Backbone:
């Protein structure tokens, strides 16, 4: 089963930030607010990703069913988003905007499995629903910071302000649960404003509102929340101020790259020094993944220049950074699956240069998902590899045999897993 994640923490458009192994091409900076396809990113410096990362490579498009003879599912407003917002203001209704594209397989899946459902149509009956074509209406997409990491849905209040945003594919139960919550105005930007008004000294709550406003392009509202935080905490002790400091370091790296198309080693060293004494899990995850991909980029540049010794050294530093990032990894299933399947395979390919600490980390990573995905052949194979490298040959052989059996039971090709078993039995 192909899994996808929408947690930006796994990838950014640039290699300084994100979990993806960058390609050997030169870097190029990008916006901080994007999710992550946990796809191969370019080797580039980047800013901090949003809470929802970009999905992994999407599965092949499923064949669409025959067109129904009558209207099924959501009734879409025909006039476009601007007219929908005007209509909402005059009729005091919410607006639901679905950002989509013809090439987006997850959008097609959501349209087929969610938006065509009668229960969904009933839930959205009092809401003005409009579809926004990402490619044809790019100005609108840019206004609300919608990237090509689709699908994205944005809910608007009757006055045209953003109420909530979902940066991910959702199945029908998840969509209906969120629709009920958002219509009830719970956990929304409005709700967060009310909480901040009720507890203005709660800087964590105010920071979360700042993040939400920034993510939907409400610059003035975000700036006001930041100013209030800075005024309340001039010493910089709060979690929010730590995040602002981190964002500033990343912005400086980004600006230098934009101007010179190079990385300033002093800035990279400054980021590392900041991370070494930081304790916020979110910052540590983002920051150390940034450092890991930066050193991966350095490694590829050294390899391209024929310096294999320096390339190996940089890969070692990259793995040290991955180890520092690991404790802060977001624990949702898709994120864990994509991250471990990616990096466990990467470590296996580099097994001849792994340190004892690297092997311990690999064992920890695969152990964290082996029980979660006990019926997944790939995960069991990766667990077998980790056990083998840790010197646990008998356990490795048993895990690999399980992977082969699972593959056969599910109709998968077991040959790659059989190759792993050959390595285990051969002791190489």
Residues:
């Amino acid at each position: 089963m192909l899994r996808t994640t929408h947690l930006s923490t796994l990838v950014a458009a640039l290699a300084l930030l994100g979990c993806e192994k960058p390609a050997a091409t030169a870097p190029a900076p990008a916006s901080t607010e994007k999710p992550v396809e946990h796809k191969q990113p370019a080797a580039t410096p980047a800013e901090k990703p949003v809470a929802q990362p970009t999905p992994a490579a999407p599965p092949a498009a499923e064949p669409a069913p025959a067109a129904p003879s009558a209207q099924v599912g959501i009734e879409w407003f025909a006039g476009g988003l601007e007219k929908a917002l005007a209509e909402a203001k005059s009729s005091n209704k919410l607006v639901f905007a679905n950002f989509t594209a013809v090439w987006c397989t997850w959008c097609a899946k959501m349209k087929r499995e969610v938006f065509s459902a009668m229960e969904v149509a009933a839930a959205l009956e009092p809401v003005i629903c409009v579809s926004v074509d990402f490619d044809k209406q790019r100005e609108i997409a840019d206004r609300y910071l919608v990237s090509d990491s689709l699908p994205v849905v944005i809910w608007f209040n009757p006055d045209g302000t953003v109420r909530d945003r979902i940066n991910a594919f959702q199945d029908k139960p998840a969509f209906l649960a969120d629709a009920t919550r958002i219509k009830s105005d719970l956990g929304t930007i409005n709700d967060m404003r009310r909480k901040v008004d009720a507890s203005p000294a709660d800087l964590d709550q105010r920071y979360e509102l700042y993040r939400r406003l920034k993510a939907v392009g409400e610059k003035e509202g975000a700036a006001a929340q930041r100013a209030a935080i800075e005024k309340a905490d001039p010493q910089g002790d709060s979690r929010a101020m730590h995040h602002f400091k981190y964002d500033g370091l990343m912005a400086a790296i980004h600006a230098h790259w934009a101007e010179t198309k190079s990385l300033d080693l002093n800035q990279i060293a400054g980021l590392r020094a900041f991370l070494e004494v930081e304790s916020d899990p979110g910052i540590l995850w983002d920051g150390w993944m940034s450092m890991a991909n930066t050193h991966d980029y350095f490694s590829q540049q050294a390899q391209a220049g024929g310096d294999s010794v320096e390339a190996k050294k940089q890969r070692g530093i990259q793995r040290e950074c991955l180890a520092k990032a690991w404790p802060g990894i977001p624990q949702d299933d898709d994120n864990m699956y994509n991250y471990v399947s990616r990096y466990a395979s990467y470590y296996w390919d580099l097994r001849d240069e792994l340190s004892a600490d690297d092997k311990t980390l690999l064992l920890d990573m695969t152990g964290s998902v082996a029980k979660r995905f006990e019926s997944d052949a790939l995960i069991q194979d990766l667990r077998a590899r980790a056990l083998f490298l840790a010197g646990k040959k008998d356990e490795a052989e048993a895990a690999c045999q399980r992977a082969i059996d699972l593959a056969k039971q599910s109709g998968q090709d077991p040959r790659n897993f059989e190759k792993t078993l050959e390595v285990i039995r051969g002791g190489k």
Summary: The chain has a mean pLDDT of 85. The longest strand covers residues 95-100. Residues 34 and 283 are 16 Å apart (CA to CA).
